[in-house]
Amino acid sequence: MRIMDATTGLKGLYVIVDPEHTDGRTPEDITRAALSGGATVIQLRDKISDKGPMLETATRITELCNEAGALHFMNDHADIAVLSGAHGLHVGQTDLPVSAARRVLGDDQMIGTSNHAMQEALVSISDAVDYVAVGAIYGTATKEVTVSAGLETLGEIRARIDSPIAAIGGINASNIRPVIEAGAEMACVITAVCMAPDPEAASRELVRLIEQSRA
């Protein structure tokens, strides 16, 4: 099942699946569990695999997301995003420029970007991205170099743009409520789901907290 109007899926729990942070489980296992727990967006962020195995994993994750009516964004690799049939591509500030990525991606594929400050977010909006990721909101150990944004920057960006916002960085069940209250449509997590003893239960709890915060 592929979402017809994919942009309507840009909300809720966004799980970044990184094979370096799965506690020995496969990216597919984490994806299945996260989707069963209610995640609406999955991103494959793979910094260690060769392109062949990466494509195989990305293709399987796209299939799992299609079955669940969820979205799959490939991190960094526009070619893998196209070949795996992913719903979109996520790029950072030093990755492939949005304009270049669009020359590779299909017309129906989306683009999201990482942003640490207001000016970066405004540039992303001028590039007509489909969503803006803002972070790091809290401290995180999953990236070696992380620029802090914080809840204040998140709120300021929310006040200036209309596009969906994904908050990222150190988000877990204990601190997710302020992220949603600050205006993020999506809460991005890695450790809180991928390293949890029960990723499905962890996802379900985060989804519950997101919905509760919105109410």
Q: Can you put this structure into words, describing what you see?
A:
This protein has a single domain (12-214), classed as Aldolase class I (TIM Barrel, Alpha-Beta Barrel), CATH 3.20.20.70. It has nine helices and eight strands. Helix 1 (27-36) links the parallel strand 1 (12-17) and strand 2. The longest helix has 18 residues, at 51-68. By secondary structure, it is of the alpha/beta class. It is globular, with a radius of gyration of 16 Å. The protein has an eight-stranded parallel beta barrel, surrounded by six helices.
Overall mean pLDDT score?
Answer: 94
Give me the CATH superfamily. Answer: Aldolase class I
Largest sheet: 8 strands, parallel, barrel
Kindly state the percentage of residues in helix. Answer: 40-55%
Order of helices and strands: EHEHEHEHEHEHEHEHH
**CATH-level-2 architecture:** Alpha-Beta Barrel
Question: Which spans have pLDDT < 50 for at least 5 consecutive residues?
Answer: none
Q: How many helical stretches?
A: 9
Radius of gyration: 16 Å
The best one-word shape is globular
How would you write the strand order of the largest sheet?
Answer: 1-2-3-4-5-6-7-8
The top-level CATH class is Alpha Beta
**Total E-strand runs:** 8
Briefly note the CATH topology name.
TIM Barrel
Please indicate the count of domains.
1
Helix/strand-derived category reads alpha/beta
**Termini Cα gap:** 28 Å
Q: Bin the strand percentage.
A: 15-25%
